[in-house]
Structure formats: structure tokens, C-alpha cells
């Protein structure tokens, strides 16, 4: 691809993240956008990356910030704030 | 609360824009974005909807004193939920800041959709932000005042330490004077040369102490002045 890739907030996770991202970007362009996506792929890379994130989010206290935001604007709600359903 | 709206167009098909969106960072313009992490991603193959939660790390672009005031965090974070709807050809990204939430909340919504005039060649980018400041100006002022008082306290403490040492030396000088007096009594003005010698020594000690006192006071003045200038600078930069 030759493009620069973004890094993780935790430098320790950057390598795992970039492996996952590479896999995902390929899936997104080649399968998802073409309507051929049967399931969310790249799970092996995802598991490793995710484990690394969990450790460092706890260390840096980001998980606390997140839990508040998640109850305010749930993932299942597409990130819409629960107190304002009119928000587009 | 303030609203911000903007609309732009990209001369690329929606599919291409949506793919590039995942690889938007790093770029030369958004240098404040330091990291991007995927926290959760779910795909619904029936609806063909992909939902992603991301954590975006930004470098702080706020004055240092504001960092001190609010607990000092070197980075700020934004949480973003995006949904890619393949059937409707839309990408909707909703984000909100995680850090500084007690001061300011920015709810941003970005939608990438095909431009109706050229749905396979052009993409519309619509951005809306709702900005709410949670602090009244009075509270900000109060916090700045508290911070300033604190800083002044610290500098005053330093100043006092400096002055303490000066005072200590003055006390020593008194002892010397005492001793000189005793000597006077004991020696009963035995020789004028002894007296002269003591006087000279007392003089030079006094002179030395005076110089030290002056420089200590000057130091306190300079520090106080620096603190005030820094504060003024910060307020200026903030605006």
C-alpha cells in the first residue's frame, strides 16, 4: 500500500494494530464494499490487538473514561446520545 | 450551546471515500491526531452494516496552566462510533470528547453520502457539531485565581526562604556585635587597633549581607514578574 499507518495510543500495541488494520482494509475494499462480506474477518489479528489494548487502557485509566461515554452514547445506538434521540 | 455546520464535496465515488476514511490518519494537516485505535467492530451481514468504535488520541493544544488546573493529562481522547451502511451508501460517524468533558463537550456528526447530482462520482461530506461549555466564566476565573494564588504562594515561599537566610545572617551579625561589645567591656578599650579591626570586619560583613539581601529581593521580584507574565501569556494564547 505504501501509505503511512496510524499508531496505537499505546506504542506497545502499534505493531499488532497495524497487522490488524492491514487485514481489515483489505477485507473492507475487497469484500465488504463489493457486498461479498459474509462475516467480520481478521479475528486472529483482532484478538491479539484487542488483548494488548485492554492491558494498556486499564493502565492509563482510559477504560474508566470509556465506560461513562458508552453509557451516554451506546455502541448499539450507533453512538447517538441516549438523552437526545433527536440528535441525527 | 453552539452549533457548527459545514458541507463539502469530494470528487471521488462514495466507496473510495469510505475506504480512505479508515486510513485518513496520519496526514499532513491533522498533525494533532496522534493515535487511532479500534475498540470494537461488529458486522451485520444481513443489513450489510458495519459498526466500529474507535479511540482517537490527540495532542493537547492547551496552555500548560490549564493542564495543571484540570489534573494534567498530556493527551486528550475522542471516542467515535461509525456505521457504514452499504445498502444506503452512507458512512455516519458520531464522536464526542472523552477528556475535558467537565469543561467542554463536543458532539460531532459526520456523514459521507453520494452526491445526488453525481451519485457514482462525487461524495458529499456533511459535518455538524454541537458544542457545550459546562463551565461558567466565573468558575473559570475562580479556578484561574486559585491557581494564581497557589503559584504566588509557591513563589512567596521561595522568596521567604531567601529572606530567611538573609535574616539568619543578620542574627549572626548581632552575635558578632554582642561579642564586639563584650570584647569592648573586657578589654576596656585596651588598644584602638583591635577595635578598628573588629569594626572593619563588622563593616564588611554588613556590606556583604546587604548585597545578599538586595539580590534576594531582586530575585523574588523577577520571579513574581515572570509568573505574572506567564499567566498573561497563557490567557492571551487561549484567546
TrEMBL record, chain A:
Keywords from the named record: Disulfide bond
Top-level taxonomic group: Eukaryota
Short name of any one Pfam family annotated for the protein: UPF0203
GO molecular function terms noted in the UniProt entry: phosphatidic acid transfer activity
Gene Ontology CC annotations of this record: cytosol; mitochondrial intermembrane space; nucleus
Any one GO biological process: phospholipid translocation
Renumbered residue ranges of the record's region Disordered: 69-88
Family: Belongs to the TRIAP1/MDM35 family.
Protein name: DEKNAAC102006
Lineage, top ranks: Eukaryota, Fungi, Dikarya, Ascomycota, Saccharomycotina
Automatic annotation (TrEMBL), chain B:
Annotated PROSITE patterns: PRELI_MSF1
Sequence intervals crossing the membrane: none
Pfam families in alphabetical order: PRELI
Domain of life, per lineage: Eukaryota
Entry GO CC: mitochondrial intermembrane space
Residue ranges constituting the PRELI/MSF1 domain according to the UniProt record: 1-175
Protein name: DEKNAAC102246
Native source species: Brettanomyces naardenensis
Amino acid at each position: 500500500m505504501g501509505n503511512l499507518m496510524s499508531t496505537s495510543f499505546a506504542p506497545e500495541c502499534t505493531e499488532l494494530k497495524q497487522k490488524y488494520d492491514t487485514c481489515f482494509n483489505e477485507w473492507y475494499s475487497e469484500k465488504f464494499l463489493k457486498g461479498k462480506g459474509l462475516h467480520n474477518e481478521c479475528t486472529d489479528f483482532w484478538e491479539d490487538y484487542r488483548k494488548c489494548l485492554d492491558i494498556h487502557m486499564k493502565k492509563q485509566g482510559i477504560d474508566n473514561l470509556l465506560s461513562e461515554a458508552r453509557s451516554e452514547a451506546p455502541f448499539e445506538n450507533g453512538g447517538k446520545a441516549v438523552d437526545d434521540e433527536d440528535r441525527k | 450551546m453552539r452549533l457548527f455546520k459545514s458541507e463539502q464535496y469530494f470528487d471521488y465515488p462514495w466507496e473510495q471515500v469510505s475506504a480512505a476514511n479508515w486510513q485518513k490518519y496520519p496526514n499532513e494537516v491533522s498533525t494533532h491526531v496522534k493515535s487511532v485505535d479500534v475498540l470494537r467492530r461488529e458486522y451485520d451481514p444481513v443489513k450489510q452494516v458495519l459498526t466500529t468504535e474507535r479511540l482517537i488520541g490527540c495532542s493537547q493544544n492547551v496552555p500548560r496552566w490549564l493542564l495543571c488546573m484540570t489534573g494534567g493529562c498530556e493527551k486528550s481522547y475522542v471516542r467515535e462510533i461509525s456505521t457504514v451502511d452499504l445498502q444506503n451508501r452512507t458512512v455516519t460517524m458520531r464522536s464526542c470528547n472523552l477528556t475535558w468533558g467537565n469543561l467542554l463537550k463536543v458532539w460531532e456528526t459526520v456523514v459521507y453520502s453520494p452526491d445526488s447530482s453525481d451519485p457514482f462520482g462525487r461524495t458529499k461530506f456533511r459535518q455538524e457539531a454541537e458544542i457545550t461549555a459546562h463551565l461558567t466564566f466565573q468558575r473559570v476565573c475562580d479556578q484561574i485565581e486559585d491557581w494564581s494564588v497557589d503559584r504566588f504562594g509557591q513563589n512567596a515561599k521561595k522568596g521567604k526562604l531567601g529572606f530567611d537566610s538573609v535574616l539568619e545572617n543578620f542574627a549572626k551579625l548581632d552575635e558578632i556585635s554582642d561579642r564586639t561589645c563584650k570584647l569592648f567591656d573586657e578589654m576596656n578599650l585596651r588598644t584602638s587597633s583591635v577595635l578598628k579591626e573588629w569594626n572593619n570586619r563588622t563593616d564588611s560583613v554588613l556590606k556583604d549581607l546587604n548585597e545578599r539581601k538586595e539580590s534576594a529581593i531582586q530575585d523574588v521580584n523577577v520571579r513574581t514578574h515572570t509568573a505574572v507574565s506567564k499567566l498573561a501569556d497563557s490567557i492571551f494564547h487561549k484567546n
